[in-house]
Amino acid sequence: MKPKYVYHGSITSGIKELDPRKRYTPGVLGKDVRAAIYAAANPVYAAAHGFPWGSSEGFDVYENKGIVTLVVPKRHRKRLNQPVFIYKLLGKYFKLLVNDSPKTQIYISYKKVKPVDVFSFDSVTEAIKYYKGKIKFV
Q1: In what order do the strands lie in the sheet with 95-96?
Q2: What's phi and psi for 91, nearest 5 deg?
Q3: Dihedral, CA atoms, 18, 5, 86, 113, nearest 10 degrees?
Q4: How far apart are the first and last CA of the chain?
Q5: What are the phi and psi torsion angles at 69 (to 5°)?
Q6: Nearest to residue 36, comparing CAs of 25, 47, 51?
Q7: Which terminus of the chain, N or C, has less C-beta within 10 A?
Q8: pLDDT at 111 (0 to 100)
Q9: Containing H/E element for 126?
């Protein structure tokens, strides 16, 4: 069943309409991916992806028993200090990525979407804790 709302994280404030963007996501849609908006059923997952990072840097995100954990290399812990914005979007505009490699429900839309709400946080850490997620430093 499609969720009523999905969530998109960003370091950009004041977005009035999200535009589909081309983005390579290893293991998800391949290299020839169409421009899309990515969103998650769980706002913690959106917060964890709301700032720039890469798995090649040692970051990871996973879900275990409903709890999302962001894995952060200790040398990059200061990156979590930046503000992050969680955009609440109507789920009816999104479809589930059936063969996704991330460990939670990821949705995509190929059309522009206007947020129904936005939640601002002073830091990525604050957002993840607010939504009951965890951060693991390695």
Answers
A1: 95-96, 106-109, 37-40, 5-10, 84-90, 117-121
A2: -65, -20
A3: 10
A4: 36
A5: -120, 130
A6: 25
A7: N
A8: 94
A9: helix 124-130
